[in-house]
Amino acid sequence: MSNRLELRYKISLKALINLELVVKNMKEIDKFKNIIEGTQEEKLNILTDSLIQRFEYCFDITWKYLKEYVINVLKLPLDVKTPAMVFRTLLKAEFFTEEQMNIALKMLEDRNLTTHTYQEDLADKIRNVIPKYYDLMKEMLEKAKP
After folding, report:
1. How many C-alpha atoms does 139 have within 13 Å on its Cβ side?
2. Do 14 and 89 touch, CB atoms closer than 8 A?
3. What domain range includes position 80?
């Protein structure tokens, strides 16, 4: 096992833990009343921004780790360097189900939307599905442990 793969795995796990913290705390926004100033709506906006930033970072780190996993552990050729290609390769390798791949592709689409546009209604929509994306990334990392 390469040190690079193990390092990417550790970084991916750390990013996932950081994402998990915000996912859990979105449900307990009141506990931040003494830490974050502002109205309840302003606090929600701050946590939403944090959640989306952590989601973007976690997604990027995770798919790049999975790319390394496909090449170094599964020993599958992977010429294309896109998340969608990595997910499709993992499906062909029966690493995950068709349903999981569809969620992964939707996660990619949402990640791209958060990066290129910022609209409050979009942020609210994506905020609500990030817990599902977190669960999928966690499953993928657990299965792809070096």
Report:
1. 13
2. no
3. 3-143
